[in-house]
């Protein structure tokens, strides 16, 4: 079985989710958990974007020992210098340089001709290579780029020193077949492609990010980029936990492994949800609150007889502990707080007081208060505050 490298961009692309703004300590806490989870590569941020991001990337680089730590740079010398200054103390430092290659981005955003784009990408990859052994280059909006042009620029940036070529589906436009074919095309048309690792990076605008990522893997990609819980710009990045578990559960079909420690999945997901404030939908695959709940009598009966009747993943595999805490009208504030923490949500004292009062009111006229009832109370308070 060949190994797929997992590249986590929760702290860079994930943090680009509207409304998310992590401070240095929070980013470091997430990076440490990503390392425990077994991420091969962590994109810690975009050092040139702000002093705060620079310092966060630097702190992560100084503390993370097992995972490669990357910073993002545009094809601008000062961005590349900023990444170097931020990650140079890392055990495994690396840079991720990107430039758009689609006609619409080149004309309207970059205002450069295709020839100028090639020239810029090559010279900046060469500049990055003077400072880094590990240089990833991304063709932003690759899936809306001309394939022949893409093949030409890839060949040249490989000659300039790139070690990883990433072809993002920046706007989540590709279908699995398109996306897989694009990698096949590059393998056939770029003569030096075997010198580099191929990487995929999918956004979820059409809800196809996981399927597209799996298609890329089946067409020769060995690095998968994405974010925990699928957070990121617009509809988000691919959810790495989904890709990891799809490869694992269907190893009969895919034959790939990873270095992820699956039992850290839930803990990582909860931490990211808590610190970003982007709570995971209840029916989210792998990490949603309902992912291992069985509602109908037929399903409950089946699971009691043999869990595999309706469960293809055991909760323990992904670090989900069975829910043993049932709350009712005799429950106290402490148990209520523990339940809220179980959801990965933290309330201020005032929010906890309001939530507990509402819970108590509910227990007066509802015999059985479910986790969903409590979750609804808490989320309403969180949204109002
Ligand atoms: O989606 C994208 O194209 C990106 C690049 C910066 C790699 O996030
Ligand atoms: Zn992206």
Structural commentary:
Residues 4-266 form the Pyruvate carboxyltransferase domain. Helix content is 46%, strand content 13%. It is built from 15 helices and ten strands. The strands form two sheets. The protein has an eight-stranded parallel beta barrel with strand order 2-3-4-5-6-7-8-9, surrounded by seven helices. The protein has a two-stranded parallel sheet with strand order 1-10. It is globular, with a radius of gyration of 23 Å. The structure holds 3-methyl-2-oxobutanoic acid and zinc ion. Residues 13, 98, 138, 140, 168, 170, 201, 203 line the site of 3-methyl-2-oxobutanoic acid. 3-methyl-2-oxobutanoic acid (KIV) is lined by residues 13, 98, 138, 140, 168, 170, 201, 203.
List the helices and strands and how they pair.
Blueprint: E1 2-3, E2 5-8, H1 24-37, E3 41-45, H2 51-63, E4 68-74, H3 77-87, E5 93-100, H4 103-110, H5 114-129, E6 135-140, H6 147-160, E7 164-169, H7 176-189, E8 197-202, H8 209-218, E9 223-226, H9 240-249, H10 251-254, E10 256-257, H11 265-276, H12 297-305, H13 333-342, H14 349-365, H15 371-384
Parallel strand pairs: 1-10, 2-3, 2-9, 3-4, 4-5, 5-6, 6-7, 7-8, 8-9
Helix pairs in contact: 1-2, 1-11, 2-3, 5-6, 6-7, 7-8, 14-15
3-methyl-2-oxobutanoic acid is lined by residues 13, 98, 138, 140, 168, 170, 201, 203.
